[in-house]
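Example 3.2
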Amino acid sequence: MFQQEPTKDDMKSIHHWYDPNSKPLNIVEGNEVSVWDDKENEYLDFCSQLYCVNLGHSNEEVINAMDEQARQIPYVSSAKRTPPRERLANKLAQVAPGNLSNTFFSVSGSEANETAVQIAREYQDAPTVLTRWRSYHGGTYGAGALTGDPETRATIERHAATSGAAKFLPPIPKAFDTNDPEELARQAGEHLEFVIRNEGPDSIAAILTEPIAGTSGAFPAPPGYFEHVRDLCDEYDILLISDEVITGFGRCGDWFGIQTEDVQPDMITFAKGITSAYAPLAGVIVTPELASFVQSNGFDIGQTFGGHPVGCAAGSAALNVYADGVIENVATQEATLRTGLQDLEATYDVVSDIRGRGYLWGIEFADPETGEAFNDPRVDDGSNPVTDVLEEARERGVLFGGGRPGFQIIISPPLIADQFELEQALDTLEAAISTAFE
């Protein structure tokens, strides 16, 4: 009745971020840090697909855990309890920073962020959530309102306005016209306080922020910035939510990105790396106070696949693997990425900035004569040489991610990538830059 495989001219699925002019790869196989397309071409996967396949494409411990759970019972209602959920929630309480203790599971990062916001608004009895411009918190209507990336928000709001979110500037040099880290932290913190006071502190439920930016450029905050944010949250009675959808589970060299800032959030949202993307799973980890509030007042919202048992089994297995040297590998090998990218910045005047932490880095390109992007998709039409860099790297067998806005690329390899693979990818990136800008 059914043909075995669809032909090239008979594809019925519509992929996400669909562009009628694009020609996405047809990925058919993966092993460790590499993937293969339907033409048997091999690629180093240095975007971890969508910044999520942290353990590579063939981790047997995670696969076996999923198989065992599916054979025992493949699904349990999200309104009921089941051992896989309890095991994973207890493990998360052990690795989460500070006193974060209880987890509400969901399906995707968008839904995790919406859940965290819903909890914050109920607990605080306040409507507004502050997020940064050039942030990404998801593509559903609620999470899209939180997102500060204009491309996403414009797409979502084209026919339906969203509300309840206000924006503040990210702590990046161009936003405050300074390259001095101490001055940048001071100005960005004072700006955030101005936004808080202008909005009215009593109206603000939470600040939702990525500790290290994801697709918007992998930029970390200057030293002292997050301490200032935490102080402002304490002063004005605002909850601090750390969006760890990308930065969680070792990506930045510790269990969670916010731990590299030594700041205690009130909630952490997670997805992607919790299962190394082997199964969809996400959630929110909260403090005992917030957990008690939910348990006392109820939370009449849910998702059919929230805390899916197979996903939870994958998550528990993945946490075991992370603890067994994977996060340590990121901390050890970070210097290889940093040094290699710094060399590119020193060699090519079109590389205007590199920044990042752990295995999450951004490389930005600009015209050396003007300091402006060769093409800023937010305001410019026409060809973009940064896209050419991505295509040249792909032709040479390495996949990198495109940043938002598109004058940058994101380097985000699986956390198991070793020094040889990092250096191979950096050499390919250099060749791609040289060819694209020759």
